[in-house]
Write a structure and sequence with these properties.
binds uracil, Uracil-DNA Glycosylase, subunit E, alpha/beta, binds iron/sulfur cluster, globular, six-stranded mixed beta sheet, 6 strands, 11 helices
């Protein structure tokens, strides 16, 4: 990758301007030794205790189609099913379901955690400040929401705690909602999946809830035979500017994977 191109990417992500030592060859990726050390436990990576403090939602009796039916649905049936879904307790607190948005033939699929307040109101994923950063990340790799990129979440309804604040979905909620995402992935057949943050990565890879995102970066994983790259969640990147550089490295890996696919 040329330095000019890299500078454009970094600028899109709000990291620029890029400067380098003139007596050094240009490295495509920031050397690990130059990365700032994470000062504290990653804010996004909630501890087990925090996870446990999450108010467990009471699942309602399943009235939606079984996952085997979901696996055979077309786009219209899938959208209708999600819109009326009561498979988990999150249906009780939602304003709108957030199905996902973008190009249904996209080669790039970005997967977040679940709707927040803005998304719950509008029905579209990633519309807040984190969404702006995600849009910049998309632009950095040459795609847009509606053009060769699709954006979805692990759960389609907003999870909140007892104080009305956003929280990660529980395992039960994730399990209830995953068949929809699985079907979306099967219909889209993307070339590369990008998991945004811990919830997306762990849910898709079926890993231990204690696994930190830092352990999953830098490797091309597989989901249903498709390459999956893990990076930080944009909301986390907004809180931790130095990690943006790492997200850039992750996008480079995703682009290489895409190019080689
Ligand atoms: N965070 C997510 O993970 N998904 C959204 O849609 C919005 C914020
Ligand atoms: Fe249904 Fe998913 Fe919403 Fe739960 S989160 S009610 S499974 S659409």
């Amino acid at each position: 990758m040329t330095l000019e191109r890299r500078a454009v990417f970094l600028d899109e992500m709000g990291i620029g301007p890029l400067w380098q030592r003139r007596d050094m060859p240009v490295a495509t990726e920031t050397p690990a030794a130059l990365e700032p050390m994470p000062a504290v436990a990653l804010a996004e990576e909630r501890t087990v205790a925090e996870q446990a403090s999450v108010i467990a939602a009471v699942p309602r009796a399943p009235e939606a189609p079984p996952s085997s039916a979901v696996a055979g649905m077309n786009w219209m049936q899938l959208k209708e099913s999600v819109a009326g879904c009561v498979k988990c307790g999150l249906c009780n607190g939602r304003t709108k379901t957030v199905f996902g948005v973008g190009d249904e033939k996209a080669k790039w699929l970005f997967i977040g955690e679940g709707p927040g307040r803005n998304e719950d109101q509008t029905g579209e994923p990633f519309v807040g400040p984190a969404g702006k950063l995600l849009d910049n990340m998309l632009r950095a790799i040459g795609v847009k929401r509606g053009e060769n990129a699709y954006i979805a979440n692990i759960v389609k309804c907003r999870p909140t705690d007892g104080n009305g604040r956003d929280r990660p979905p529980t395992q039960e909620e994730t399990a209830a909602c995953m068949p929809y995402l699985e079907r979306q992935i099967a219909l889209i057949q993307p070339t590369v999946l990008v998991a945004l943050g811990k919830t997306a990565a762990l849910s898709l890879l079926g890993l231990d809830p204690e696994t930190p995102v830092s352990k999953l970066r830098g490797t091309v994983h597989r989901y249903a035979g498709l390459p999956l790259v893990v990076t930080y969640h944009p909301a986390y990147l907004l809180r931790s500017l130095p990690e943006k550089r790492k997200a850039w490295t992750d996008l480079c890996l995703a682009m290489t994977t895409y190019a080689n696919a």
